[in-house]
Design brief:
271 residues; 7 helices
Length: 271
């Protein structure tokens, strides 16, 4: 484990230790103290929001889906999506601790934004993922990350079929807007387990969905150490999504070489 990961691990364990001993203020101050450290800002932001949410007197096992998303999942999504890496700057400027002030001078184009819960897909109003992220290219919105959630209190199976169909719709839309070898990513949350999926179009009418990573959401403050892997997983996912957005932007106004490969999903789910 490199030095940075040791710092991350130590920070999170100290945070959980202080939280478990009833020293919530000390734990939050620890997180706040890392907000000016650009390497730890994303982790500190997520931990601070988790601590605030887990202070509430909710039983995470019994809350409904909307509350579960807000309390448990949103701290990770907000921290990762809002944490902008200035790829256009050199390494020294990246390390400048107030680098966010520079984003107005050198903005990142096509950044990700979160929609509200249960918002319809762009171009397909019958499908409403639990959460989604989108970007805007030349005034056109593109959904680019989908999240389906089944909270611990749910008695239903997971939403993998629904997620796969939604991802296929988004993939088709990417191709229709010039992408040649696109991939679409989605997250399936089942209880406290997050599984990340990727769908690609590998041949005419042939779509392949595969699981690429699994991580966990904290069940309680004693579980805050899982935030290291979970934030790393979502951070990697964000970068993969961003790559796809850049490909679409680079190929705009062109015709995709695989436009004839697409097909509508065989099954539909009316919501």
């Amino acid at each position: 484990m490199d030095h940075l990961n040791i710092i991350k691990l130590t920070t999170i364990f100290l945070f959980a230790y202080n939280k478990d001993n009833g020293e919530e203020i000390k734990a939050k101050n620890l997180a706040i103290g890392q907000l000016l450290n650009t390497e730890l800002e994303m982790y500190a932001t997520a931990l601070f929001n988790l601590a605030t949410n887990y202070d509430n007197s909710f039983d995470l096992v019994t809350v409904d889906e909307s509350i579960f998303i807000d309390l448990v999942l949103n701290p990770f999504i907000k921290a990762v999506v809002s944490f902008i890496i200035l790829r256009l700057l050199d390494l020294h400027i990246k390390k400048f601790k107030f680098y966010k002030k520079l984003s107005a001078v050198l903005p990142i184009n096509h950044k990700l934004q979160r929609s509200g819960h249960f918002t319809s897909l762009e171009g397909e109003e019958n499908f409403k993922p639990d959460m989604k992220c989108y970007t805007t290219i030349d005034g056109i919105r593109f959904d680019c990350l989908l999240i389906e959630v089944k909270c611990p209190s749910s008695t239903c199976g997971d939403d993998l079929l629904k997620l796969s169909i939604e991802m296929q719709f988004i993939l088709n839309r990417f191709v229709e807007h010039s992408a040649n070898n696109p991939a679409v990513y989605g997250v399936l949350v089942y209880g406290f387990i997050c599984s990340m999926y990727k769908i690609t179009l590998v041949a005419p009418k042939v779509y392949v969905t595969m699981k690429i990573r699994k991580c966990f959401l904290p069940r309680c403050s004693e579980d805050f150490h899982v935030a290291i892997n979970t934030l790393s997983s979502f951070s990697q996912l964000r970068d993969l999504v961003y790559e796809q957005v850049q490909l679409i932007a680079a190929n705009k106004r062109k015709t995709s070489d695989i436009l004839g490969w697409v097909r509508k999903p065989i099954m539909g789910i009316k919501q």
